[in-house]
Amino acid sequence: MKKLTLLSIIVLLMATFSLSAQNTDHKWAVGLNWNWVDFNTVHRSVPDQFKYTNWQGYKFPSAITAGRFINPSFSVLGEFGVSKLELTTMENLGQKLSDSKFWTADVNLAYKFANGYILKETSWFDPYVYLGIGASSIKDDGSSKNTYFKQVTGIGFNFWVSEKVGLNFQGAYDFIMTPKLNDNKRNDYMHYTAGIKFRIGNIDTDKDGVPDKTDLCPTVPGKIELAGCPDKDNDGIADKDDACPDVAGKPEFKGCPDTDGDGIPDKDDRCPTQAGKKELQGCPDKDNDGIADIDDACPDVAGKAEFKGCPDTDGDGIIDSEDRCPTQAGKKELKGCPDRDNDGVADIDDKCPDVPGTIANFGCPEVPKFELFKVVYFASNKSVAITKYTKDLDEVAAILKDHMDVSISVEGYADSQGPDAYNMKLSEKRADYVINYLVKKGKIEKTRLVKAFFGESKPAADNNTAEGRAQNRRVEIKAINK
What we know:
Blueprint: H1 6-20, E1 27-38, H2 46-51, E2 56-57, E3 63-69, E4 74-84, H3 87-92, E5 101-112, E6 125-139, E7 145-160, E8 165-178, E9 189-201, E10 373-377, H4 390-402, E11 407-412, H5 420-442, E12 449-453, H6 466-472, E13 474-480
Parallel strand pairs: 11-12
Antiparallel strand pairs: 1-2, 1-3, 1-9, 3-4, 4-5, 5-6, 6-7, 7-8, 8-9, 10-13, 11-13
Helix pairs in contact: 4-5
């Protein structure tokens, strides 16, 4: 059986922690605890364990604990403590002691539930389970101390009352692996601690390698060269100082780009891809009229601000591009053109610019329309007008003699009886009859008479009745106004 002194156990434990401490995070926690052991209940049933407990402890602090952060889920835990045993109780349990002090030292690997997967890493409730190895030292009935090696299985709870201070409770089963001092009963025991725990060392909340105390952005992972602050656009300017954190820029513009290189950052540049003038918020002005091209309706020719950069050569308030007469002052309602006779027709459209006229007659005075409309009717299948209508033809002849400037149209029609081709020819004969009558009766020039014929295609009444057919056998005479 190998004997270890208390000093050798302490050196072994501290060496373990010293090796673990070589890490950029240096996340540690230490605790001061009460320490109790119970040899009485481990070999009993669970109900009897609560009934026959016999906790043997020591004054506070009787245990020192230390923890080393590995990652959000795992930590290394160490404990060194002492308990004061009752010699009579231990003798009744089969182990005669010559010294009541019972020393223990453990190194354990703990799995934490406050790891960001089960509970939040920042949770005030911080439970964990742990598994490890250790050694216990006690003086038996002889004068020398004996060291027992053990395997430890336990559960613990941290209750953090602040970022760095919390309450700690642990309970473990210490299984003695070697040596066996009593073949009839193992000297296993229950091991409890309770106390206060302190987080120490450099805290790096965002795990970016920069301790919180020097991290200008302690809750957001960042770059070491930027004191722990992120730089999303990788322009060398920390996002917190970058006026344009999502796009790479220049230091002189607080991290904002100047795409067109006109000295105005894109965020303030109305025309970020075209070099322009500072007074025009970075926009160009090709015609140098003081109006940015993007606002200039006439960017290639200098104009006035009130006309959105367009010129008004004749000064009539209408820009040249909309002025039909850009070199002559005119009226707005006539698109900038003058109207000398004030008849509402622009001079450029007015065929009589010095005499008031009408729009319908292109600015000239209206000539009264000559009204003339007569209808003469024919018997069925006849091309000679019914006798009573010759007086109407005589009246038309007289009118044409008195109005030498009047021309007329003579349109022949037929009813629907008979073939279409025959009716078309019949309607033409009826028109010829009327023309020949007027020429002979009134000595009217034939050129003033315009013939047309439509057969049965344009009925004036219903061809299914005798009365309707009688109205369709006709010639219409109408004045032609030029």
